[in-house]
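Bumping with the actual sequence this time:
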Amino acid sequence: MQTSLKTDEHGRVNLGDLKDIVWIEAENSEKTLRDWWLPRDKHSPSPLLHLLAHEQARIPIMGTEQGNRPLNQLASLLETRAGVFVRDCKNNLTVKDSYLVLHDLEPGNYSLMTKPDKQITIIRVTKGRAEGSQLLGQNRILERKASFPLQIQDIKTDNDMVVVQLANAVPGTRVHMVMSRYVTTDLFSQLGTPFLRSPTVADLKRPQSQYLSGRKIGDEFRYIMERRKGPAYPGNMLTRPNLLLNPWSPRTTELSSDSAKEGEAYQTLAPQKQRWHDDAVADAMLYAKPSSEQSSSFDFLKDISPQVINLIPDANGVVKVPRKQLAQGQQLHVYAVNGTSSVYRQQALDERPEQPQDLRLQQNLNPATHFTEQKRSSILRQGESFTVADIRSTKLEVIDSVASAYRLFTALNDDPTLAEFNFIINWPEHSLAKKKELYKKYGSHELHLFLAKKIQNSFRPWSAPIWPTRKINSFLMTGCLSAP
């Protein structure tokens, strides 16, 4: 269904309660499309889960998933054998404290799907004992990963404090809070999730019986063995007079031949290899789906989105932040993460007055006056000042050293000869032998004047002995030597 909606005096359209709505797309009169992905509570998925028989495990359920919906609308748990569903295990599922709790599972393989977000978790259960991170069973060894992931159970806000209650918070848990005014890019996808290698499983090699039966032998060997083992009857070897006793009418003789079949060799036992399952597909499920590539500009807002990061929960998993640190905005984003899992929740608060900033051109140009764009170079002596009329529309560069002046000239002119004179940038740092070598190669009136005026103290002691050896000394050379 398509319909046209009109905004109110504030540019808004009230859409009501957007239950089970994932994204919104709008088109204006100029046929410009834009879509918004509504923020949803998320947690890092657990594609694989390994347990011991009758052991409990928890999987977070987010947002409206746990509401008042019946259990069959939240998740389904099915036992699988050879990739085929064989039994419904809904009696082994319960909802408690924002978790989906699995309990009393018998050894086998199971498939758990949380229906609102369509995430599938493969569960392997074995009967045995735990040794460190390994679950040792009779038929396979399972690697155990964290089975109690992090969860944000509750967010409470008032005029003074923001209180966040966490579950399964370990010492390395950190909490980040951000307050925004409008729907922005998914914070969970931007911050990412801890990447962990999926747990592995090894099927153990079981000994096989070496007894084999069912070999087929050839017809000739079978005939000999049957005659050798067959019963013996008394009688003579003469042909019985069947033709005289029971004559038959002459008829055409038909002949056929049957070739003796070859025998078969004994079957060999196929070696049973120890299989390690590679769950690369399950690892790919850890990455969140990309959000919309479109972005919005919030330059008209006077205040930036406040954020409080790297908060450490207390011993009870509680994080408290003063409300004044998250004053601007009304959409609260809470992201908690540790070394094994991450979880994200968002909560809409009461709207607060918006404080925009004026982006219009306040100091405009007088249309009755002529203006031109100019480039000026001003020389300032010690103690002088320079005033810029409009710093917002002026590009300013200060050249206060030989290095900055050299960079300017090389940017304006890419003459390779000019590039060879880069030694003047750090001329005082060169050794005396290096200075004489450079001076003999690049000596000129310009270099004489530059060294005499800019580096007076270090120029005359070593250059004066060289100049009398020149055939002709100009007035510039004489002036440089006589300069104070």
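The tokens above came from a reply further down the thread. Residues 272-276, 280-292 have pLDDT under 50 and may be disordered.
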